[in-house]
Amino acid sequence: TASYPDNSRNAQFGKPRRVFFTAMQWSPTGRKVLCATSNGEFVLFNGHAFGVEMKTAAHEDGKPCKALAWGRRTDAVLSGDEGGTVKLWANNFTLAAEFDSNQRAVRDIAWSPGDHKFCTAGQDGSVRIWDAERVSQTSDGADFETKLEGHGGDVLGVEWHPSKALVATASQDRCVRLWDPRKGADSQLAVLESHTEPVSAVAW
Predict the structure, then answer these.
(1) How far apart are CA 48 and CA 64, in angstroms?
(2) What angle do CA 79, 84, 89 make, to 5 degrees?
């Protein structure tokens, strides 16, 4: 587990605290890598010089952010924290939108091909699909388009197929499920049951 020095002091021992990296995403160009920390900060590294380009508070109240997704085409960044908050960041990490996913904690997040939509995986056992444009234009909260339900535990990983309308999810219930996000309540296509422990990640 990687950690990062924090300038603040531990209240009990008076020593510098160390915070842990909880998520990491390369930029689409591969020139930068964004890390989220256990106290809700972003740390942006230069992928060639390996120096810190930026360090900033991202999620309030020190909530750990374990879900990051960097858009392939728009260069926008999505983040989700342990309180269920989702944030959409535009260029230079300007906050474009913020809303409550109502999933208790956001475990993972993924863009669709083209970055028009995205999905969030939650502690409530669901995956929710959102329209990025609608989210960015709504100031009083956002409504999801589709809710994918069927897992019997936290959804720990989600990945949208790079070119098709197909979503894969991994869960605490030891299953991987495949979904067609266009079909709403009837979107589940297959259940892959061969793991004997919770499945924490999935990738195409």
Answers:
(1) 27
(2) 25
Query: What pTM does this model have?
Result: 0.88
pLDDT tens-digit readout, 80-97: 999 999 999 998 899 999
H or E segment and range at residue 134: helix 132-137
Q: How far apart are CA 110 and CA 118, in angstroms?
A: 6
pLDDT (0 to 100) of residue 61 = 86
Q: Tokens 């960097």 appear where?
A: 70
AA identity, residue 106: V
Strand-pairing partners, residue 155, are 171
Task: Find the radius of gyration of the CA atoms of the chain.
Answer: 17
CA distance 170 to 150: 11
Strand, coil or helix: 186:
helix
Strand partners, 129: 119, 146
Pairwise CA distance, residues 175 & 192, whole Å: 6
Q: How far apart are CA 131 and CA 134, in angstroms?
A: 5
* pLDDT tens for each residue of 104-156: 999 999 999 999 999 999 999 999 999 999 998 876 667 899 999 999 999 99
CA 40/CA 97 separation, integer angstroms? 17
Under a CB-based contact definition with an 8 Å cutoff, are residues 172 and 153 in contact?
yes
> DSSP labels for 23-53?
EEEE-TTSSEEEEEETTSEEEEEETTT--EE
Beta partners for residue 120, in sequence order: 109, 128
